Each structure stands twice: as C-alpha cells, then as structure tokens.
Protein 1
Amino acid sequence: QLIHMARQHVFVVEQKCAYADADRLDEHAFHLAAWAPEHLLPLAYARVVDPGVKYPEPSIGRVLTSAAGRNRGLGRELVQLAVAHTIEAFPGQGIRISAQSHLAAFYQSVGFSAVGECYLEDDIPHIQMLRPG
C-alpha cells in the first residue's frame, strides 16, 4: 500500500497525470524500494516485470524517486540494481522499458538504446528503449 501511495504521489499528483496505475502487472513483478526510517513512503522504487507479460523481454518500470529522495543518486542506484537483478534472473534476454522521453539520456547512461519513435502514453512523451541481453 505504501508503494502504491508513492507511485500515486509522483505519477498522478506531481506529474498531474490521471492514469490507471493498477495495471495487473504488479503480481508478475519483482519490486525494489529504497526506504529510510524517517519517511513513511519509499524514497525510490522500481519494478521488474517478468518476460512475456508486458513485452517479450523482461521490463523495468514505474521507476520513481520521491521528493525526499531526490538529488542523492538513489534513482540511478535503484535502476542499476534493477538492471543487475533482471540480468541475473533472466540472463541473455535483454530488458525493454517505456521511458519518459526527457529521461532518455539517463537510461542511455545505464546501457539502454532508443528503439522506434516517440509516442504519447498518458499524455506524456515516451520512447521504448532496449538494453541488449
């Protein structure tokens, strides 16, 4: 429940975007979160969705850093942990993401390459990116 609260706060309240977060993928995912005892909600969060559920490859998504966790490098560290977990759990399969377009350079810095054209998802520009297996 606290993870869902953090996701709603970042993706709906901060980004002013109404969308259905309950997408039935959580049950087919590994969840990573960074917690601090002085904060109720996680400082950072990401989920790794099993291959064949959202994409043929495993995918990383719902990546967030809360306001309290920003400017500490937690987002980068969490994405690197998610990538490492995905490689270990699903060797040789690659990783596909749907990244907000303004974060493409960040994801390129951790090994992802843009594939295809930009598109709107929930009225926010996105691009699919792939990290080879």
Protein 2
Amino acid sequence: MCPCKSNKPYSNCCEPYHTFAKLPENALVLMRSRFSAYALSLVDYIIQTTHPDNEQAKKNIALWKKEIEAFSKTTSFDDLKIIAFKEYKTEATVIFNAYLRQDNQNGSFQETSFFEKVKDHWLYKKALTLKRI
C-alpha cells in the first residue's frame, strides 16, 4: 500500500509522481506524494517539489539533503489525515495531521501548508502554522 495512506497500491498512487511520469494535478495530490516521499526517503523528490522561495530551498543543498534523509530514516510515518483543502488557480492550502513517531516518541503535528502553481507545476511553498498533536 502507498505510504500516503490512500489505501491504493504505491504503483497506482504516488509512484508515478515520484518517478516524474506524471505531474500532481493539484496541491492535495502533491502534499500526499510529498508525505509518501518522506516516508520512502525520496530526497530529490522533496527538493524538486519545493518552491524556490521556501526557506529550506535557500540553504546549502547538500546539507538540506542530509537533513531530509536523516529525518526520513529516523521517523515512522504512521498516518495522514486531511482536514481541509482549498485550491484556486495558482494557490492552494492543505490542512493535515501527520502522525509520526521518532525514537518511539510522538512526533505528530498539524500543519497548514501553502502551495503555488508555477509553470503548470504545483510546489510546496511554506507551512503557515504548525502545532503538535
């Protein structure tokens, strides 16, 4: 099953996005595919689907890759719940709960994420709010 918790096989869900065989048709699909990419430690996908204005994108890329890889490998991505999704022509927000465990401790959080469509590609721009749950 796909790590994005869609109850679909990975090959019919996030894999086509991860291999760039298909572009996410909306910000919600991008958000789910990014959750899945973190679970699978697909660092390049995370970087390539991050908006250039995102603070992380302005960091040293090699360091950023190491940080993503370390986070992915030390985290259990247990569940994903979509709370709300609003999309306009070139902007979107997704509110979700990510249920994570790190070192056998709760690392779950709720996030409101902002996405922007740039040249027909949805990109993750920033988190508007973040709270532990």
Protein 3
Amino acid sequence: ARTLLFRCDVADDAGVREMLKAVEAEFGGLNGLVNNAGTTTNVRPKDFDAMTAEEWDRVFAVNVRGLFQVTRAAVPMLRASGGSIVNTASIVGLRPGPQPLPYAASKAAVVSLTKLLALNLAPEIRVNAVAPGWMEGDWMMRMLGDRYEDLMARRAKATPLRRNVTADDVAEVIVNLLTSNRMVTGEIVVVDGGYAATT
C-alpha cells in the first residue's frame, strides 16, 4: 500500500482541501484515514491560574478540531471506497491520569467523537480509535524528563505483558482496524499491555 503523509499543527479548511486534492491526484481515492493528532501543554493539572483559555484552545484546535476538519473533508472519498477511519485517542481519554487538563479532556473528546462519527458515517465508513498507554519514545521522554528510565521501568514491571507500548504496537492495531474487522466500528482499542484492565 502506498501512503501520503501530511503534517499540520492546526488544520484550516483551505489546507485540508489542498491535502485531500493531493491525495486524490496521487492515488485516485482514499481507503483509509488515520487522524494521528496530538499536542499538549506544560501547564500542570493543578495550576488553574496558569491555564489560559488561549492555551486550552490551542490544544483542542490540534487534537479535536483538526481531526473533525480532516474527517469532514475526507468523507466523500471514504464513502466512495467504503473506507475506514482510525483516530488516535489516549488512555487518559478513558480514565483520569496525571496529564495536563486540556490534553486529557481533548482525548476524551476524541473518544466521544469517534463513537459519534461511527454512528453518523455508517454504514459506508467504519470509525474506530486506538488509546495507547505509556509509550516508549520522545513524547514520554519530554513528559517525564530525568525520571523517564526509572518510571518506564516501573510501569513495564506493573504491566501484565511486562513491557511498555511501542509505536510498532500501535501501528499494528491501526493497520488491523483499517484493513480488517469489517464488523467493528465505534470501538476504542486500548493498547497498553493490559495495564488499564488490571489496575
């Protein structure tokens, strides 16, 4: 399968239309869409005074509005192909955690939006989401700083499968949801080695 990768910090309608035109010109249509948007803030969850409306809106613009705008623009091509959508949520969109408030709330919005889109785009388009847990890599390194190695090792030890999630683990589930599971829609697949299910 060929892919075309676009990256936008905040999607605007003109940029989205341009992106979808490039997809149609390159591939002649669209079979699958992965909305893999995610940004956060450095404002701590309990620091309400530091959390401005502008900062809150910035996170939601990327994590929720961008997802909606790209999906809306892609719907005609996905309907024509009987395609599928997979959104990237997060475990903190399903259960409370020590994440910045706008990030956690925006990922909860992605969970809800996934279910709403599954209802409203059926039967032509399936819509699901993945909700990764603690994932190895740059994001968690930035979030945990000097505590990264220690905290990741502790989390792996407390996880039934005894390791943390990798990007490959998440990609495997995304590809599976896009290309298989023809009777699965509106689902949020947790990818965390069983941690959330057992704690």
Protein 4
Amino acid sequence: MIEKTFLQSALKEFRDYKALGDKTFAQLDEKDFHFQPNEECNSIAIVIQHMHGNMLSRWTNFLNEDGEKQWRQRDDEFEIHSFNKEQLLRLWEEGWRLVLNTIESLTEDDLSKTIFIRSKPHSVVEAINRQIAHYSSHVGQIIMLGKIIKGKTWQTLSIPKGQSANFNAKMTNK
C-alpha cells in the first residue's frame, strides 16, 4: 500500500515540477531562453540541455543499467548551443516523457530493488527522491530566470504577493 502511494506521489511531484517549467516557458520569448545574468549563471537553455542529458542517462534502462551512461556527454550539456525555443522544448518534453513513463512502469516490488548511479548503490526510492530534488532545484532556477527576464510582466505561478489570506479563505470555503 505505501509503495503504491509513494509511486503516485513521486509521479505527482514530477508532473507538478514539469508544469511549473511549462508555465514559465509559455511566458518567454525565443531570446529569453539564452539570457545569462553573468558568466557563472546558466541560461534556461543550458538548464534544459542539462536536465535532458540527466533524464536520458538516469531513466534509460533505469532498473538494469548504471544511471550514469557511458554515452552521456555531461560537459557538453553546459556549453552554449544554438537551439531555438522549439528545439529546447522538444528536449524538455523528451526528457520528461522518459521520466514519467519510467515511473508509471514501476511496480511496488521494484521499490525494494537496488540500482546504481556512478557505481554507487541506491534503493529505487532513494534514486527517485534524488531526481525529484535535482529536477526541482533546476525548475526553481528556470522560474527565477523567468522572473528576472519578465520583471513586472511576470505572471506568478502560485499565490500572488499579498493574496495569501484571500487564497486561504477561498480554500477554507470549498
């Protein structure tokens, strides 16, 4: 029972973070994907490239192969490429499709298995939690960059500032 609840919860978290990214992208223009506040910060394009590479590596043959595939070119994920918005969104969708399909395919029995990431053993639960944390941090970066880029025209993805009491009252009255 708890295993099924965990898988459903993980799937919901992954979908929720993907949706936050999707809502951010909907507010951005082509050029916005390549904005870097400074040399040390990644652009949204680079974050997408990195997440895509990580997702393909971690979730391809999730239960049977090390999550750090030999074919992965991690350093290249952080290089500037000339991908346009459409190409970046294809990478985003491809990565998330693999994550979500893999989680949906897992059984309760799979949660007791051990997988490897960079030769280090992880329970399947640990590996899933690790990726939820990893992807949520990057989606947070995407949102922050979106807020910086859009400034006053940013459309909030959660409860607007100063509206918590109204929101809570509406939730209580449901």
